[in-house]
Amino acid sequence: MAFPERFLDELTERNDIVDVVSQYVRLTKKSGANLFGLCPFHSEKTPSFSVAPDKQIYHCFGCGKGGGVINFIMEIENLSFPDAVAFLARRANMPLPEEAQSEDTSRRTRLLQLNRDAARFFHETLKSPQGAAAQEYIRRRAISPAMVTRFGLGFAPDSWESLANAMRKKGYGDQEMFEAGLVKHGRGGGVYDAFRNRLMFPVIDVRGSVIGFSGRILGDGEPKYLNSPETPVFSKSHNLFGLNLAKKSKNGYIILVEGNIDVVSLHQAGFDGAVASLGTSLTGEQARLISRYTNEVILCYDSDEAGRKAASRAIGILEKLDLKVRILQVPGAKDPDEFIKKNGADAFRNLIDASAGQIEYRLRDVEAKNPPTTDEGRVDYLKSAAALLASLPGAVEREVYAARVAEKVGVSRAAVLQEAERLRRRRIADAKKREARDAARPTQTAQPAQRSIRYDDPRSARAEEGLIRILYLDPGAAKGKALPPPESFSSSVLARLYRELLHRVQTGAAISMAVLAGQFTGDEMSHFTSVLGAPEDLSHADKAISDYIAVITGRTEDAEDDLRALAEKYRKTKSFGG
């Protein structure tokens, strides 16, 4: 999809990368001219995600992702290039050029409209005589009319083509309904409704668009909840039910529960920060989505073995994002909905106030698995508890919880700390060995972070990177130079980048990250950004260009020592954006 370059340049000018990224990432740490924050694309506790305002690019030193503002929206919103451009155009109140209306963008818009109309159909059906069974279910579950409206609840009738026929009347085709996950193909070649005899919960994203559905069966049968399949506008692992409402909560925390009914019940009781994953265990993408709106999460899962495993897994994902995690266990009830109906909202609020921190919860789990009732059990408990303490980053945390462990089994706190410190030293030593092994492999160290891009000749590729970097940062430095042709490059991806830059330098056209974003893949743009962020002394650009050309054209000896020194330089230096 080709957008006019002038349009793309204006688009990026009106969508400053710091302003856009700040809506998703807390940019608080400064390094020179750059801003740093926790990467939204992988789990980390130490900020390695950098934004360079002067170059209008971002780069993560941890996962390697990078690019301009369009690439960022493509990654964070899981959009294609045309859809990301349309997203930013709406943000800046810029009309899209008529000639640039892409088929993909139109298709996405059409599917969102179809989902919206399907949600209205389900909602209207719920209020009609056809929805009597669902109305009775809602009454039994004590869901108020206000909550029905707030969540847009609906009913899919026990019919093969009720939705399909209603959508056909609105002009939608069978293939569109299939792409949206609303119908399935029958053996005879026709289609039938995917959701039948179910209470319908529209899944609404944080921008207010209906992207999918979750349907709960009214009677017996499996699955209890049926969710929309993966579609061009819906991904279960990237969304949470209720987050469109919970993001506005003033409670200061998000409550993560297992079921949609629990979310509705909690909102009705005043706990409007409740969300649920859509039939899946918590994913890293969902956790990062939560971290945009809060720094504290309360896990409220079932207390059975499956619930405990899910909680432990969620703790591991959430703590990597430096989120405060508490675990709320519901006594005498199978879920929050049942507890609130039995005991009221105030009793549930007391449970929140008394909920355990994740370390305390994990120690309880260690104790449940290793009951310290015998000498053997005490030893197993101490070993497992010490391993948990060794994973804690703070000395104060280790000291406090070591005292609790020691008291539990009647040993000294010093003994517990000594064992935890021994395990901690072993972990640190293992990490250093891995780092040393990596540093000892200069050829591997010189490879790009993106696994889809490999260098056959790392030494030449580093010189190719250097020439690309100077062309981008200081195009005037190349004037009068006999630049090598792209065919002389050892790396095909660098050759493509170089060919584009060389054309622009020779024709005097502006070099724009926005234009490049439409021509290269996400991995290629991430790699390009890391190339731009590497150190380069532009005050000696003439000499550097000559040296780079000499290496690329093979006029110097290829020495392993040179490659080792180059790898060491890049390993020790993390300069980005000037």
Explain what the structure shows.
The protein is α+β, with helices and mostly antiparallel strands and 578 residues long. The longest helix has 27 residues, at 413-439.
Set down the secondary structure blueprint.
Layout: H1 5-13, H2 17-22, E1 29-31, E2 34-37, E3 49-52, E4 57-60, E5 66-67, H3 69-76, H4 81-91, H5 103-127, H6 132-140, H7 145-151, E6 154-156, H8 162-169, H9 174-179, E7 183-185, E8 191-193, E9 198-204, E10 210-217, E11 225-227, E12 240-241, H10 243-246, E13 254-257, H11 260-268, E14 274-277, H12 284-291, E15 296-300, H13 305-319, E16 324-327, H14 336-343, H15 345-354, E17 356-357, H16 358-369, H17 375-390, H18 395-409, H19 413-439, H20 442-445, H21 458-473, H22 492-507, H23 513-517, H24 522-533, H25 541-552, H26 560-572
Helix pairs in contact: 3-4, 14-15, 16-17, 17-18, 17-19, 18-19, 21-22, 21-25
